[in-house]
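Researcher: Next sequence.
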Amino acid sequence: MKRYLLAHDLGTSGNKAVLFDTQTLSIVGDCTEVYQTYYPQDGFAEHNPEQWWQAVCTATKKLLTGTGISANDIAAVSFSAIMNTCLPVDKNGKPLCNAVIWADQRGAEQLNKLYSAADENTFYTTTGHRINGTYSIAKILWLQEHKPEIFDAAYKFLQVKDYVIHKMTGNFMSDYSDASHVGCLNRNTKKYWSKLLEALHIPEEKLPELKKSTDAAGTLISSAAEECGLIAGIPVIVGGGDGCCATAGAGVYKTGSAYNALGTSSWNGTLSKTPLADPDKTCFSLIHLDGEQYLSLGTMQSAGHSIEWLMANLFPDFQTNKTSCFAYVNDEIRKQLESGNTSQLIYLPYLLGERSPWWNSNARGAFVGLNPSTGKIDMLRSCMEGVAFNLKIILNSLEKSLGPLSMRVIGGGAKNKTWLKILASVWGKEIGIPKHLSQATSLGAILCAGIGSGIFNDFSVIEKINPIESAIPPDEKLAHAYESRYDIFIKTYKALVPVYEALRQNGG
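Model: Next structure:
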């Protein structure tokens, strides 16, 4: 039996290819090929889709050569990829322009069109999202207005992995998770929202066919096999958006379990059998990889980014000595926590505005409570606490709608045990630490490949692949102290809302 699965995780800066052994349930090799993000003008962010394909081909060949595994032993291939993309292609799958990626802001000018087509509440209860200019549909509307020749010539508007699927199989298709972020999928019917598309004059046939992430997209065609060094006929499984793949790879595959991804940004996510009902619209939801459950999550902008920003400003040698700087800071913060030393310093982690929980692009970072005795360690501790408080608001919102949740954490920040102790104490929950902290997204794509090819029965196999290996409990004294600080954190943000608005009006 062919024993290896191949996954491609197409990110913002490159493609990470992973080979997985289904007999030992382990990753046997990985390879990353970078590509470029283009910024043709302010607010624009684009990829050349041909670079995606070249990265897939090159990484595959290097991975097979480096591991010594034969292409004959590859059982299936699948994908995870960044979402919120707009790539128009013709009937032959040829790109008509560069892909407009998630970071692109040009769709913001199309908000009035979206608001005229659907009110906020109807949009949220139908799509699972607030009306937002970052979704693919806003970028499609931008092309419709500014590049009508491209809009008219477009046969399909694709996501990142959809383009690679076409290159491999000749078929045009996407999955429910990626389509959930386009901004025109009815999460309740799992079909495109025809009424909205009609109001926006977007022909539904310009959007790809939808499948579960574990469905087959087709088999590898000979021309593609030759280019990427594989064997024609290999099953190509649809795969999913990176957020949903990370959820599955983190070990969350059923209700009651949740996770936090702690990296440059951060989010809390969990699954439910019915769509999230959140009257405050704090969180948003996607259809999950299985095509049945719903992933509800809240994402904040500046988690690890806040820490890195502050470290870089407080430690002149940070860029050349990151490891030693972090070791020193974490040790000093740990000493403060163990001594019971409490802080009255509040940090609002809104360097880039904020999505969840406030959805306020005008919000900005702030320290409140500085005094002459405040030192750099106090500020960095407050930075970690501020991220934890913001994530607690998101967690509370999810639990209000979906009930109590157990938590685990993935991402680069999960290696910081001091920060995890703060998180556990702020949340009042034990935090599980799985075996793989940085490979969850790739593992989600591996699960799609394994289930889609019949090697794995279902997503529960992740318990064997990425089990919880340790846990961080909350500190009761810290947890008690953080309860009142949490309320102050929320009051601080609300007090500054009019200040943020005044700064915006003043050009800040």
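Model: The first strand starts at residue 4 and ends at 10. The chain is about 40% helix and 20% strand.
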